[in-house]
Specification:
heterodimer, A: mainly alpha, ABC transporter involved in vitamin B12 uptake, BtuC, two-stranded antiparallel sheet, B: alpha/beta, Rossmann fold, 6-stranded mixed beta sheet, 4-stranded antiparallel beta sheet, 10 strands, globular
């Protein structure tokens, strides 16, 4: 056998269009904001709607991020994800109601402390529920998509009925913590304090998820597992444990999203998670199944689109996001940032 | 033969309704390269995938250094010291070369001397260390797949067709790296269709047909006996 020749190939420089292509999904958010600016006659209205859209998008992202990872990692279609949103909202709001004096006090510190306790309670409850849900409902149907859809939808119905048994069938109207009520004025636009908080929370969650997924070994395992779970196991990692961890974390995030969503709408119902699932699925699909970054961008697009269209043409608001999904899937059938799956 | 590192005793593996392995017996000696040969579709890849636990043997035993690993889950088999390079390379395309290597070092950061050795064997990996693995050429991806199992010392290396579809220059690079691994005393079970590579690396050979082992012996004997090659595999090494 002959000796190996010098082998130091160079990568060819990609064309400009190819180099821009990966950033196109990110650019869609400012492009949509500019389109909104051009279409909405008043700058202050545009600013209010943009903050509102970003806040809504952040909350949808928080609720959807766990679902996209669960699908990407273990190929599980969890139609019951909305149950965690509802339970998170009910547990969190119940905790807030129990701390009424802190919520009603005109102190930002007390309000945020109460909110923090409520969020921790909701995330703990939905995390434990996620663990049980995965064990009892999801584990027996790995690899069977139709069964997954049926059984997780069944799980959602059961959880909704349990909420009705525990909290009653009526809608519960709630009031936001005192310091988070009202709005601040910026450039002539009224920006609701709560929406600004929602934007901040969403950014923190996204940054944390990015950090964990990009900078830690567990994140590497999750990202690798999304692409090729079999190979991750062949390297010696127990993917099953990783999956349970992701499922629990995703459920807890949905719980956090539920609390945020409930306070955003100022009313909670047993079916609120189920209703939110439409937007959640749109976001997960247009983002690219398994992609957290795609999910984040998709959520912002959906939030902005919903708010702009609701202002300009209220009757079209309902279908605007479906239209967005169709347009994006025609452009990129696997979603904006598709995850390369091993065959 | 001294105590083998791996022993398969009458292993049967079914995939759905297909009976792929039908009583495979195999011994892999320590510190040597054992070739697993045969035509396409005779069960070579299934044998490796059964050893690593991706497929379950429904009958028979698989012993790694005397320990029964037949029913062990894949991660436990890997942690017992079995490195696996699948036929499709199993590269994580969205991860960088560095991230692929970090994942491969299960017990901690890669030893720097070992990393230097890997870079010496596969210089392009150093060049593209921070690049996404999906952007590598086919040959570079194969280098990465081999480099990953080299990231830590293993008891046994299972390598499935490392030269498949590669240009001759890269095949030479690959063969040299495997030779380096062999010279360090590694125990390797290698599935290979390139007979020049098989002849250069193999100490012993096992030929499969129809889910069974039909011949086991010295690679040298197989390499020099054209009639035996023709009978076992329907081809002659003299053509290579």
């Amino acid at each position: 056998m002959t000796a190996a020749p010098e082998h130091a190939p160079k990568m060819a420089q990609a064309a400009l269009a190819d180099r821009i292509a990966p950033y196109m999904p990110v650019l869609l958010v400012p492009i949509l904001a500019v389109l909104g600016f051009l279409a909405i006659p008043s700058t202050s209205s545009w600013l209010t709607l943009t903050v509102s859209g970003l806040a809504m998008g952040m909350m949808i992202f928080i609720m959807a991020s766990g679902l996209t990872l669960v699908f990407g990692l273990m190929d599980v279609i969890n139609f019951g994800h909305g149950a965690f949103v509802s339970v998170g909202a009910f547990v969190g709001i119940s905790v807030l109601l129990m701390m009424g004096h802190m919520v009603e006090a005109p102190s930002l510190m007390l309000n945020l402390t109460a909110l923090m306790v409520a969020v921790v309670g909701a995330m703990a409850a939905t995390g434990v529920m996620g663990w049980a849900f995965e064990k009892v409902i999801v584990e027996p149907v790995y690899g069977h998509h139709l069964k997954q859809i049926l059984v997780t939808m069944g799980g959602l119905i059961v959880v909704e009925q349990l909420i009705i048994v525990l909290w009653g069938p009526e809608e519960i109207y709630i009031s936001r913590p005192e310091a988070l009520k009202g709005a601040i004025t910026f450039a002539g636009a009224a920006l609701e304090k709560y929406r600004l908080v929602a934007v901040a929370v969403g950014l923190v969650v996204f940054a944390l998820m990015r950090f964990v997924l990009r900078r830690t070994k567990i994140g590497l395992i999750v990202r690798a597992g999304v692409q090729n779970g079999e190979m991750v196991q062949a390297l010696g990692y127990r993917l099953r444990l990783v999956f349970i961890g992701v499922f629990v974390a995703g459920s807890a995030l949905a719980g956090l999203g539920g609390v945020m969503w409930g306070l955003y709408q100022e009313v909670i119902t047993a079916h609120m998670g189920n209703h939110a699932m439409i937007l959640i699925f749109i976001v997960v699909i247009i983002g690219g199944l398994g992609s957290v970054e795609g999910c984040f961008i998709g959520a912002l697009l959906v939030g902005l689109m919903q708010n702009y269209v609701a202002f300009l043409e209220p009757k079209a608001a309902l279908i605007s996001n479906i239209g967005l999904m169709v347009a994006i899937l025609m452009w990129r059938p696997m979603g904006m940032i598709p995850v390369v799956k091993a065959k | 033969m001294p105590d083998p590192i791996l022993k398969l005793e009458g292993v049967y593996t079914n995939i759905a309704q297909y009976h792929i392995l039908q009583g495979v017996d195999l011994e892999v000696p320590r510190g040597a390269v054992t070739m697993l040969l045969g035509r396409n579709g005779v069960g070579k890849t299934t044998t490796l995938r059964t050893i690593i636990g991706h497929w379950r043997a429904h009958k028979g035993r698989i012993l790694l250094d005397g320990t029964d690993i037949t029913s062990m889950p894949t991660p436990a088999i890997a942690r017992a010291g079995v490195g696996f390079v699948p036929e499709d390379m199993g590269i994580f395309s969205d991860l960088t070369v560095e991230e692929n290597m970090v994942l491969a070092a299960v017990s901690g950061p890669i030893d720097s001397a070992r990393l230097d050795w890997i870079f010496a064997a596969f210089p392009p990996l150093k060049t593209f260390w921070k690049s996404e693995a999906g952007n590598l050429s086919g040959g570079q991806k194969q280098m990465l797949s081999i480099a990953r199992v080299m990231a830590e010392e293993r008891q046994l290396y299972l390598i499935d067709e490392p030269t498949k579809g590669l240009a001759p220059a890269i095949i030479s690079t690959m063969a040299k790296a495997l030779k380096d691994l062999k010279d360090q005393g590694a125990s390797i079970l290698l599935v290979e269709q390139n007979f020049a590579v098989a002849k250069a690396l193999g100490d012993s050979a096992n030929v499969m047909d129809d889910g069974r082992m039909i011949w086991s012996g010295e690679m040298q004997q197989l390499a020099t006996d054209a009639e035996l090659q023709e009978r076992l595999m329907g081809l002659s090494l003299e053509a290579h």
